[in-house]
Amino acid sequence: MREAIERSIAVLGSQLRTKGVGVAVDCPPTLLAWADERRLLQVLLNLLSNAVKWSPDHSAIDVTVRVDGKLVVVDVADRGPGVPDEMWSRLFQPFQQAESPLAKTHQGTGLGLAICRRLVELHGGTIAAAPRPGGGLVIRFSVGLSSAKERTPPPRPLVERKPIDPELVTERIEAMMSGVSAPGRRVLVIDDDPVVSRVLAHVLRDRGFVVRAAETGQAGLEAAREMEPSLAVVDLQLPDIPGADVIRALRATPQGRKLPVIVLTAADLSPADIAALRALDAAVALKGEVSARELVAGVEHALRTEQASAPSGPTVLVVDDNDMNRSLLRALLERNGLQAIEASNAAEGLELARRAKPAVVLMDLAMPGMDGFAAIEALKADPATAHLPIVAVTALALRRDEERARAAGADAYATKPIDGAELMKTVRALARWQTD
């Protein structure tokens, strides 16, 4: 067990060094767990990665392992901001995003904790969360205890999986685009994690896509030749070929030269990594940080066929640090005849607002660096942009956050997941634009 923890810490070494975060491990050196090693590592990596992201710089993470009867119990504790009260009941549900009320150091948890729960439960264990005394969050999970004599592999529920429970996918997915015909809705998912592949297939098939999954890079390339997909979703960390090389191989074929690609990865990508992937014309979405709605919006936006005429309505500026969120909002706006321009951070949004003079600004509140509250105040304080109507768009569904946004100068407030019809009604009213 200790070896698995140390391997996980080694994988996250660059993240830990960048933030100056230490990891204190309290685990008996010879303790054995009755678990699939690869899946145990996946759970540990997910939990430790979340803990690193939420931890303040120069703080510590505690990993404590103990034996409770026939179980190995693992605690992963951070000293971060914790979880808002309204998020506790939904923390391990798929496609939920937990955001700090003040600053978003990462874009949330969506598939990550749901996958951890699924893997732990398939091992016969449990997983739960609790506040850490003194501040922060503790995630506790359990797996079976093994003795030194038990060297045979554990039972293999991970192979004979039951279909994903439909209740796990509860977020309503609205149709964002209508221009993609049935033959053009073929999606290839290349990911060695069958849990992720199955969840993505479930979500996309519900929207009418034909989905094929491949667990290795080589199998994915062969599937691409056979099915000629309209879009590929590629994991970066594949067992045989790096995902970036798979994308390059796809780009080298006539069919794949202009193939839309979404990279779905658990890796902690540097700005240089993201820039390199975008140079391959790949959109980037992080595992654990992408919602069902965002995934479908991104896929549909990438598959969107040329419209008979470009949108000619007023211009709306979308300011959000999440690529998929921007794709979702752009697709919604363009489908309703408005033009959309995008900014990935507050500073870029302020500059674009001054230059483009949009009819409406959609402003995410929780962004790293300058947050949306400060950006709204800056727009209202600048005579060149003070007149612009602003809609605060955020996952912060707290009354005090709405009051703070309106005090900063927001004209309206919309919470994620977005109600498309309501948001469009608000945008039209603020832009004084009628389609009739």
Structure overview:
The protein has 436 residues and is an alpha/beta fold. The chain folds into three domains: 2-146, Histidine kinase-like ATPase, C-terminal domain (Heat Shock Protein 90, 2-Layer Sandwich); 182-303, Rossmann fold (3-Layer(aba) Sandwich); 315-431, Rossmann fold (3-Layer(aba) Sandwich), CATH 3.40.50.2300. 36% of the residues lie in helices and 20% in strands. 43% of the residues are buried.
**Mean pLDDT score, rounded?**
77
Low-confidence stretches: 94-110, 148-182
Strand content: 15-25%
In the CATH hierarchy, what is the architecture of the largest domain at level 2? 2-Layer Sandwich
Share in helix: 25-40%
Beta-strand segment tally: 16
What is the count of DSSP helices, taking H or I runs of 4+ residues?
Answer: 14
CATH topology of the largest domain: Heat Shock Protein 90
By helix and strand content, what is the structural category?
alpha/beta
The tally of structural domains comes to: 3
Which CATH C-level class of the largest domain is it? Alpha Beta
